[in-house]
Write a structure and sequence with these properties.
Layout: E1 6-16, E2 23-29, E3 40-41, E4 44-46, H1 64-69, H2 77-92, E5 97-99, H3 111-114, E6 118-120, E7 126-132, E8 140-149, E9 167-174, H4 185-197, E10 207-212, E11 217-222
Parallel strand pairs: 1-8, 7-10
Antiparallel strand pairs: 1-2, 1-4, 2-3, 2-9, 5-6, 7-8, 10-11
């Protein structure tokens, strides 16, 4: 695989106590990680092939699907929803799913859901931000950021016993304290958007899009609103 290619990716911002004292689920990437070493980040990662064909517990929410379809390959939205939920499971051990039956063979990365009688549940996810990694980085992603309430989890939000070792120091960080951590620039930008919208967790009317390409960096909005100057 070409490591310089831009890969589609999904990130999940999970919020707890959104109406009272919001806390955000985050973890620290390892010192040897090729992408954002030592940084404190949201769970997330690249879309896998199997993500495009997994069954869901319910229909994909609008207007998120329409916003995800703008300036993107056709039919990408299901894979992005699936990747966000899968990465949450793999990196934190938390399940965003609902009861349901898996038809046919279950992909290896989704065995944790199937063994518990769960299908991935996209209903609680709101598409809130999109950003492309700037040129010159060792890895580049076209990342879509989703927001969800921790109340939608089908498990104990404090049980990280099934997490992989990709993120360490998993914790619910108070929103008032999160900027004291070693955050990537884009994470700070996304947190500012989320902070301004809380306690609402609904999908925004238009979605900010930080579009970096070889020629220039543009801050646009998906949803029929003109690019910002």
């Amino acid at each position: 695989m070409d490591k310089t290619a831009i890969r589609n990716a999904a990130t999940l911002i999970l919020v707890r106590d959104a109406t009272t004292a919001p806390r955000i689920l985050m973890g620290q990437r390892g010192a040897q990680a090729a992408f954002m070493p030592n940084r404190v980040v949201f769970p997330g990662g690249a879309v896998d092939v199997d993500d495009h064909s997994v069954p869901f517990a319910n229909t994909l929410p609008e207007p998120c699907v329409s916003r995800l379809s703008e300036d993107s390959a056709e039919g990408l939205a299901p894979g992005l929803f699936a990747a966000a939920i899968r990465e949450l499971w793999e990196e934190t051990g938390l399940l965003l799913g609902a009861a349901g039956h898996w038809p046919g063979d279950v992909p290896e990365d989704w065995q944790g859901f199937a063994s518990r009688g769960l299908l991935p549940n996209p209903g609680p996810l709101s598409f809130v931000f999109r950003a492309i990694t700037p040129p010159g980085r060792p890895r580049r992603f076209d990342a879509r950021f989703f927001l969800a309430d921790a109340e939608a989890l089908a498990c104990d939000p404090d049980d990280f016993s099934h997490a992989s070792d990709e993120l360490s120091h998993l914790q619910w960080i108070p929103l008032t304290e999160v900027r004291n951590f070693n955050l990537p620039f884009i994470t700070e930008v996304v947190l500012a958007e989320v902070s301004a919208a809380l306690p609402a967790l609904d999908a925004p009317h238009s979605v900010p899009f930080f579009k970096n390409n070889e020629e220039e960096s543009l801050f646009q909005r998906l949803g029929g609103v003109s690019p910002l100057g």
